Amino acid sequence: MSQILKENGPVLPERSVVEEQLRKVAQSPPFAGSPRLTEFLTYVVDQTLSGLGPDIRAKTIGMDLYGHGADDIEKKATVVRVDAGRVRKKLKEYYTEFASEGELYIDLPKGSYAPVFAPLREPFVSEDLSTDAAVLKRARSFFWSGAILGVIG
């Protein structure tokens, strides 16, 4: 998988690789019947690939994706946080039950709306994912190993 270096940012996989994985995830059983969550994931992935990942906030998601007005956004920010949690659960389900080795791992770490991308080097096993912290730890491990290899390679 070839990689590109974003200015002032991490090493990211090529856009086409991320978009293909996003299509797989979006068409999978966990996301089937959840167009709102699919749109959420697509939005944050697109923003990140466009170099705007650090700028993604509940306010921007609410306004850009859900059409909330600037006056309503403070009251509606909870909707964005709840949907982010639902997306995280669906991603966890996808990578636990449907992903295979070699796929790109898309994670939406808690506390952020910017996804992280990493190669999935081994199939996920449900006991490895007993907590969200374990998922995040694994994603960070994959991310940093990929970033280090990108710098060394």
Describe this structure in words.
By secondary structure, the chain is mostly helical. It is built from 5 helices and 4 strands. The strands form 2 sheets. The protein has a two-stranded antiparallel sheet with strand order 1-2. A two-stranded antiparallel ribbon has the order 3-4. A hairpin with an 8-residue loop joins strand 3 (104-107) and strand 4. Helix 1 (15-26) runs antiparallel to helix 2, helix 2 crosses helix 4 (73-97) and helix 3 packs across helix 4 (73-97). It is globular. The two termini are 12 Å apart. Residues 1-8, 126-130 and 147-151 have low confidence and may be disordered.
In short:
This protein is mostly helical and 153 residues long. Helices cover 52% and strands 9% of the residues. The protein has helices at residues 15-26, 35-49, 58-64, 73-97, 132-152; strands at 3-5, 11-13, 104-107, 116-119.
Spatial strand sequence of the major β-sheet: 1-2
Shape: globular
Mean pLDDT: 81
**How much of the polypeptide forms β-strand, as a percent range?**
5-15%
User: What about the largest sheet?
Assistant: 2 strands, antiparallel
Provide the helix percentage: 40-55%
Query: What are the low-pLDDT stretches, counting only 5+ consecutive residues below 50?
Result: 1-8, 126-130, 147-151
List the helices and strands in order: EEHHHHEEH
Structural class: mainly alpha
End-to-end Cα distance: 12 Å
Oligomer: single chain
For the secondary structure, the number of strands is 4
Whole-angstrom Rg? 15 Å
Total helical segments:
5
